[in-house]
């Protein structure tokens, strides 16, 4: 699972995974008859900071920002790290999200509920809270759809998006590793070929030198031209 945290993939496959989870939540909100806005702009006049979703429920305006974290990353697996506890990584990321959007939440009197899931399958406490809020609101609009079925549907959509995105990141990273290995082998073969040619050339030079020495030993003026190579 090393490739799921690779910084080189943050603008590619890993971002696709994030966007798929965001889309799953957005589609779920619309299916449940709720109003939802993706990446609402203008919430912070000092920056272009935008959460992933704004969901309007009866009497509530919820902001949520999606994050998929990898609890087995070396930076998190360390002595005393919270990744060793259940949902420790998800809780850490939730705290970061709350701090990041605190000003927006206070200024607009909205409720921030981060949606954080772990690549190993864990769902953060705040994400569970959001799922329950969506299910309760959806049950009011869709009387024929029980709350537990709504939660099962949303969780299933999110889980598929996470695993599909992780698989994509893994395959791309694996392909890059194979290409790098192939390039390394090609370079090694070129080096070996170059060394082989040099050795062959040195052998030919030694043979020429021996021939000249033999001619010099046979007498005549050719001795003056004996090989002086070292």
How are the SSEs placed, and which strands pair?
Layout: H1 13-31, E1 35-38, E2 53-57, E3 60-64, E4 66-69, H2 88-100, H3 102-107, E5 111-112, E6 115-118, H4 125-141, H5 147-217
Parallel strand pairs: 3-5, 4-6
Antiparallel strand pairs: 1-2, 2-3
Helix pairs in contact: 1-5, 4-5
Walk me through this protein's architecture.
It is a single chain. The protein is α/β, with parallel strands linked by helices. The chain has two domains: 174 residues; 36 residues. It has five helices and six strands. The strands form two sheets. A four-stranded mixed sheet has the order 1-2-3-5, with helices on one face. A hairpin with a 2-residue loop joins strand 2 and strand 3. Helix 1 packs antiparallel against helix 5. The longest helix has 71 residues. The C terminus is likely disordered.
Arithmetic mean of pLDDT: 78
Shape: elongated
**Could you state the order of secondary-structure elements as H and E?**
HEEEEHHEEHH
Assign the structural class, choosing from mainly alpha, mainly beta, alpha/beta, alpha+beta, or little secondary structure. Answer: alpha/beta
Q: Roughly how many Å is the radius of gyration?
A: 33 Å
Ends apart, CA distance between termini: 57 Å
Instruction: For the largest sheet, list the strands in their spatial order.
Output: 1-2-3-5
Helix tally equals 5
Strand count: 6
Biggest pleated sheet: 4 strands, mixed
Number of domains: 2
Helix content estimate = 40-55%
Low-confidence stretches: 222-230
Percentage of residues in DSSP E strands: 5-15%
Summarize the structure.
With 230 residues, this protein is α/β, with parallel strands linked by helices. It has helices spanning 13-31, 88-100, 102-107, 125-141, 147-217, and strands at 35-38, 53-57, 60-64, 66-69, 111-112, 115-118. Strand 2 (53-57) and strand 3 form a beta hairpin.
